[in-house]
Amino acid sequence: MLFNSFEFALYLPIVFLLYWFVFNRNIRWQNLFVVIASYVFYGWWDTRFLLLIGLTTCVSFVTGLWIDCFRKQDQGKTLPWYKNRAQLVCAGNILFNLGILAYFKYCNFFIESFVDFFRLFGVSLTVRSLQVILPVGISFYTFQALSYSIDVYKGKLAATRDVVSFFAFVSFFPQLVAGPIERATNLLPQFYKERTFSYPAAVDGLRQILWGLFKKVVIADNCACLVDTVYDSYASQSAPTLIIAAVCFSFQIYCDFSGYSDVAIGTARLFGFRLMRNFNYPYLARDVAEFWRRWHISLTTWFRDYVYIPLGGSRGSRWQNVRNTLVIFVLSGIWHGANFTFLAWGTYSGLLFLPLLLGKKNRRYTGVPAEGKSLPSAYEMLSMIYTFILITIGWVFFRSETIHQAFDFLSTIIHASSSELPRSLGVSILFPLIGLLMISEWFQRDKEHVLQIDHLPQWGRYSVYYLLIGLCFTYAVQEEVPFIYFQF
Predict the structure, then answer these.
(1) For the chain, does the N or the C end have fewer beta carbons within 10 angstroms?
(2) How far apart (Å, rounded) are the C-alpha atoms in residues 89 and 82?
(3) Residue 179 contacts residue 212 (beta carbons within 8 Å)
(4) Is 261 left (phi over 0), alpha (psi -120 to 50) or beta?
(5) 327 and 311 in contact (C-beta within 8 Å)?
(6) Could you give the residue numbers annotated as active site?
(7) pLDDT in tens, 24-73
(8) How far apart are the first and last CA of the chain?
(9) What is the pTM of this model?
């Protein structure tokens, strides 16, 4: 069930009404209804996926109880790792969940890579791919479940004995299939407390949903039409056309993914929940380090807290800092999918980050760009443009099907014989809309989302709402376009 589908337009108000007017008298029943609604939402794609998320949830729940029990029993004891039962159980849970993730996400890739490797030496193997179906959102809910058991082991969170709340935490439908990747320390306690309907929060949630749908339906989906057309015949395209396609994909992936996050966060607010922010206007970043603090925040902070810091973080020698940083970026690339292009994209991003880290300049931009000013300085503007160019080059690898295609695409830009501007690709429509997006983000860069416009008079606010709704109906493509990150 897609957020931009007719089915979800019917599903959401029905769930909303039942949640607040039928199941609102008892928090346990309300949480149980969240579980049922979430499983209906997730099972809409394939009911077989429900068994997998149910298994992950059950194992993580039981693991949390065991870890908590063993930690209390062994408290104050100095034990070697092979006698530390809490540590062994936690490690077992991590291996179990990552094993499931690896099987469904990487099994076909490893088999195909194995066959290709032997083909290099003239050996033809007749190994059949298992044709494993990738469950929607498995990377997201797996990492969310892992955060729970790790936090229980670290003592940041007491193991829950409320199985209904835990099932609701893992399967909460707004952010189930594409994030944000919530931490148990933030979302799980919200299921313990009684929730009362807040009109201001619901209005703000609806505004964020509208902005997310605008980014997805108007910008991302129309960019996808242009990008797909160009990539299908990139070898015969002119350099300006390829550059425009690369830029459009940068906005496609941003508006597609951040649009989903906006709808997810806004929907959660309708039900009295507060999810973490996942994007903070990343294309206003003044260097690569700032970009990664603003892009897919729930994933980057997950890797920081559960991989980077345990590896030693920024402590230790310069070599250890470089190693830890590259590990994070490579893992981020692998997390995105079973393709060497994602590995190349992660490695490229890490190599861009390293000069800032080694020069101790990775934290020089932490505030709002041009804070207190209407316009950026010339230096800030050039820094944003330069950063965007570097990030866009990386997105070419992300979008390409093979490493060869990525390099061929970039090479064609340089060596293309034609400098003719593209025709009939919707550029005259897309770039004004992208301009509207960037101008809106610039002037709202200190807000959580663009439509926090309470400072405007009522007629001004409603004019903006109706304008965005009109654009959504006017420029929506005929077919429903799935969100890019559903495949991850």
Answers:
(1) N
(2) 11
(3) no
(4) alpha
(5) yes
(6) 336
(7) 888 999 999 999 999 999 998 888 889 999 999 999 999 999 998 888 87
(8) 16
(9) 0.92
